[in-house]
TrEMBL record:
The keyword Lyase applies. The keyword Lyase applies. GO terms for molecular function: methylglyoxal synthase activity. This is Methylglyoxal synthase. Keywords: Lyase. Its EC number is 4.2.3.3. Residues 9-158 form the MGS-like domain.
Length: 158
């Protein structure tokens, strides 16, 4: 039963990492990326517009930039998660500052949980993730089998 409701996704050794930080946390994330640029350079990096630009300027690492968060960047990253294009995310959201796009922030965090994406919301977690043995291995994460869910729902509606 459990088996048919879940499908597993294989993640290669090169991870696709999303990097996002609110304004009050950007300096922290940029400095963390600089300290860890050797490890990060082994992976594919992307991020919301301003965060991506600042990381590239400081570290020289290529970071594919989406729109700025308040202009839809969080949603673009959420869509990439749904498409299987992101393996894990470092998202330093600011617990002390209200955001105009709070619904987008929530949506991104929610969809990352739905798709079993590891998420670091602070640098301590980011450190643990980056130094995990799984970084150098192929890893399988399990997500609900959405085709099965749709099929079950369609059956119920009949
Ligand atoms: O607002 C953000 C995440 O919610 C981040 O967007 P920027 O990187 O464009 O500032």
């Amino acid at each position: 039963m459990l088996k048919e409701n879940y499908v597993s996704f294989e993640i290669g050794k090169t991870k696709k990492i999303a990097l996002v930080a609110h304004d009050g946390k950007k300096k922290e994330l940029v400095e963390w990326c600089d300290r860890n640029k050797e490890e990060l350079s082994k992976h594919f990096l992307c991020g919301t517009g301003t965060t991506a630009r600042l990381i590239t300027e400081r570290t020289g690492l290529p970071v594919k930039g989406y729109n700025s968060g308040p202009l839809g960047g969080d949603q673009q990253i959420g869509a990439k998660i749904v498409e299987g294009q992101i393996d894990f995310m470092i998202f330093l959201w600011d617990p002390l500052e209200a955001q105009p796009h709070d619904p987008d922030v929530k949506a991104l965090l929610r969809i990352a949980v739905v798709y079993d994406i590891p998420i670091a919301n602070n640098l301590a977690t980011a450190d643990f993730m980056l130094h995990s043995q799984y970084m150098g291995e192929v890893y399988s994460r399990k997500v609900e089998n959405f085709n099965k869910t749709i099929q079950d729902r369609v059956e119920k509606m009949k």
